[in-house]
Design a protein that fits this description.
Length: 230
């Protein structure tokens, strides 16, 4: 498939609230910092031309040292994030150069694969926007402020969104310029503009590390891959 330049934004400017005193982004996992696993996948992916990493202000120097040590040639900028996740993504968009496509990924998802990135780009090429997601396996309840069940949605239609999320640059740039309220993922802003967003199968292994237990699980997944187990 012929496409223009592809840039990636790796968002890692969070404060790790549920990790206690552990900074999850630089926590050691399977022999190296968690963030290094994430960036390595984008560095190796042939479809990715440029990578911008967004970190909290106090982690910029550590991030730059890590990039130098690993010789990530595709990482062109490590920049400070904003107060909210969407502020950090906006900073990342400003750091991309002449990109026609954007892949946005959470730095705290170190177990993604190149295949997830490739498939996202293929799906997005059809309509301009695509996100990885997995079907919800448990029954979901919509609950009132008083803790009473208001609704039980059909599980068959519910998917849990993941990253990577892939967009044509002009679409995601416009979405962020017009953003008026806080959202929890990038696709929501695109949906609000009336664009269709294609969902493609993500992976149960593509976990987001938010707790110490997640960190342990990520280690198991990554070590299994190193040993040829998936």
């Amino acid at each position: 498939m012929k496409r223009g330049k592809v840039g990636a934004i790796i968002v890692a400017a969070g404060v790790s609230k549920r990790m206690g005193r552990v900074d999850k982004i630089f926590a050691p996992v399977a022999g190296k910092p968690l963030l290094a696993h994430t960036i390595d996948v984008f560095q190796r992916c042939p479809s990715i031309d440029q990578v911008v990493v967004v970190l909290s202000e106090d982690k910029l120097e550590e991030g730059k040292r890590l990039a130098k040590e690993n010789r990530w040639s595709k990482v062109t900028q490590i920049c400070p994030g904003g107060v909210r996740r969407q502020d950090s993504v906006r900073k990342g968009l400003e750091g991309l150069t002449d990109c026609q496509w954007v892949v946005i990924h959470d730095g705290a998802r170190p177990c993604l694969s190149m295949d997830l990135i490739q498939r996202g780009l293929e799906e997005a090429s059809q309509c301009g926007a695509a996100i990885a997601a997995v079907p919800v396996e448990e029954t979901i309840k919509v609950v009132s402020a008083g803790s009473f069940v208001e609704e039980t949605p059909e599980r068959q239609r519910l998917w849990a969104a993941q990253t990577p999320q892939v967009f044509r640059f002009d679409i995601i740039d416009k979405a962020y310029r017009k953003a008026q309220r806080e959202v929890t993922d990038d696709a929501t802003l695109v949906e609000q503009l009336g664009y269709e967003v294609k969902v493609y199968p993500g992976s149960d292994a593509n976990i987001k590390v938010t707790t110490p237990e997640d960190l342990a699980l990520a280690e198991v997944i990554l070590k299994s891959r190193e040993q040829g187990g998936g």
